[in-house]
């Protein structure tokens, strides 16, 4: 019974997982990223528009990722260069993305999805689904086993550590935010490629859910993406609605769990020490 | 603030309080100017007449009392959410949870209004009171979690938004749905729980105009907030915790206690936006009725510089924008998204300007 849920759980978890990985890069570099929602939405929009314009889903993917990164660049310029309040900037970007996509709403033409790969025993999924576990492991290695990752994390842990090494904290923060745009944009592309249409506000809070997964997973790629699978599973359960549990309860489960974890009843969740701080 | 005195001191170039006040007005005014300018440029790029666009903006909001009534009606919930965000911000707290708080409060008002059949002078205060308590409790939870466990209120208010959406959706589709209806809404509240429309009191408003007395409540809240923040001990504590946490601790003020009651107060005020909807306009609870008012409240508070009167002005401006967005969609075929995008840009500009000015001050 549980096995039947796995395909839809995977499909639900994949966009979350990408956005969550993105959130981890940005927050590990010390920048709060509430803009994941907007980056995903504009990514989905870019995919549909790019595919409609060129006829190629690959170009659609590139356009979607580009749109996500453009939003990320805006977030980076405002928060890192101008020291704008990070929480508010993120919300501003989400509203901006909602507005842009509503203003330029693409024609309701169906577009093709990204190629599916048939694998023995596993089944047929979009290649993006297979990419997620690879990126998850790669991100873990990158962040925790390489000097590159150490520097990125140093940007989030202390406002001065990088300066002591005569490295620029801003540069690493830009990098973290742009990576989050790339990943969240990809998540949005996947969402659009599975739905085949663009609908107004189609991300429907997934960016915030991904952020919850980041916190739930203690700002670590392995546990963060695992949290996304858990959340995806809850959503799949909600969709099948087999045991007569109110769907709304399952729907709010990830949020309740995140609050419980954040409070420290179950395990501990500790944000990077200088998250959201621009000055020492 | 005496405007004449302020103007004179501004002209004399003295660095008084009033000059500071005027200087603080410049960034929001610049941002609004930039907003309208860039909207006009987009309209020009579309190949349409930008002047016509500006003419419609003016006539849409100010051509008649009816039009202006709609503007104030749109502004009403935003005054409450703007005040809620502003009050929190003054004490260094981000209440991103207004959206959830106003839903919970709206439902509480609808529940009391449906179930109790009492005379208006009892029922209306009772409904408003229970709504404020419900919103306040929903807001206090993140406050308590922050005070007691150090959990960041931004994340918890966001989480509680989604929990509120789900809870309300459950209640309104499974428990309290109006019988025989497909629409996820409750039955109507009693006549005596309704806040009267101003059209029945003011002669020059047509009967169809939805502006109601909750706007007067909003104005009252603005004045009360100003008095509360500026002249009371609690307001002083609140601002002290926001500006100088350590000083507050020396002054025997417990920042944790302040955090809890500020979040509760902020939630209660946000809840009044739900009251305006349920008791003043729709007379029932409709699922997901709010058009992102909780989030627009952030923009309103930013634009109003967290000053209650500034928030009132900003809310009216956003009320105007909401009305104009509808009219330019009908008259010029420009989708509503243009103003939504503009609103997002406005928020980013405002916080960037604030960030730069802080940066300059430090250097």
Q: Could you tell me which chain pair has the largest interface and how many residues each side has?
A: A-B, 48 and 47 residues
Summed up, the helix count of chain A is 11
CATH class of the domain at 67-311 in chain B: Mainly Alpha
The general outline of chain A is globular
Largest sheet of chain B: none
Total number of β-strand segments of chain A?
A: 2
The N- and C-terminal alpha carbons of chain B lie at a distance of 30 Å
Mind explaining what this structure looks like?
The complex is a heterodimer of chains A (280) and B (363). Helix content of chain A is 71%, strand content 3%. With 280 residues, chain A is mainly alpha-helical. Chain A has one domain (2-263): ABC transporter involved in vitamin B12 uptake, BtuC (Orthogonal Bundle). Chain A has a two-stranded antiparallel ribbon. The model of chain A has no long low-confidence stretch (mean pLDDT 89). Chain B has a domain at 67-311: ABC transporter involved in vitamin B12 uptake, BtuC, CATH 1.10.3470. Helices cover 75% and strands 0% of the residues of chain B. The relative contact order of chain B is 0.18.
